[in-house]
Amino acid sequence: MLLEEAFEGAPVLVAGGYGFIGSNLVRRLVRLGARVTVVDALVPNTGANRFNLSDLEGLITVHVVNMVDEEAMRELMRGRTLVLNLAGQVSHVYSMCDPHADLTMNCHAQLGLSKPAASMRQARRSSSRQRASSTGGQNTCRSMRATTAPDRH
Fold it and tell me: What is the pLDDT of residues 71-80, one digit of tens each?
């Protein structure tokens, strides 16, 4: 299958689409015929810039949303066949200047994307009549305690 056939009309969400890598990916997906939605918080000093995609206005849908907002992300992910995450703060200098902001952008915001994705995946599984799990389909998150044991090898 050609890439054009795989992406033609496919609803794709690109998180971090206004950054350097994200914007180049968005351009490629548009050329392949995908229906691209960009979500970006446009946080200063992260490389996100509206100019990067200004010539694609009308060809893409854009939402300025912080990924920490799980409800907004759940809504934006609904109906997408592919979600590509290129969002993040990558400057070592800024991470050292404001480690709490770095933690929010690179950890908490990622949960805003992964938690809705996990719940949507679980909903799809539970709506399926086939269950091939050895736990009888009772896949639930449980608290797990990390332990260390001496290496016996």
Answer: 999 999 999 9
